[in-house]
């Protein structure tokens, strides 16, 4: 029974080391996911600004064309064309925002999955360590001797 204490101490030490490593890995994964989400948001912001600039140029170009043709703003087809360009830009913006949101949600789901998998691995590791400890202690103590 005396051999069980050093074995138990080593098992507890190993479990502590495993837990610390898993915690560090989880923190790293969380930091990476946060960084990726920030990159997605930043590129979404840049793309949104580019789309607004393109829309502004397209509207100005179209107004200039209509003006060159002698068509005044406020006419039916002029307004329809300009509002069509605006509506198309709005749809593209909404689609891009939805895509960015989906990508960020996917990162969150992956992080959650990694966390759950890590917890399952930690549990399995603890059970294996505990079982190993029990097996070692049973080998070192003879049940047939009856000595206690």
Molecular structure report:
Helix 1 (4-68) packs antiparallel against helix 2. The protein starts with a helix and ends in an 8-residue tail after the last helix. The relative contact order is 0.14. By secondary structure, the chain is mostly helical. The protein has one domain (4-140). The protein has 2 helices and no strands.
Q: What are its keywords?
A:
single chain, mainly alpha, 2 helices, rod-shaped
Radius of gyration: 32 Å
Query: How many separate domains?
Result: 1
The helix fraction, in percent, is: over 70%
Helix/strand class: mainly alpha
* Element-level helix/strand string: HH
Give the integer mean of the pLDDT values.
Answer: 80
Number of helices: 2
pLDDT under 50 segments (min length 5)?
none
Given the C-alpha coordinates, what overall shape results? rod-shaped
Q: How would you summarize what this structure contains?
A:
This protein has 148 residues and is mostly helical. It has one domain (4-140). It has helices at residues 4-68, 76-140.
List the helices and strands and how they pair.
Elements: H1 4-68, H2 76-140
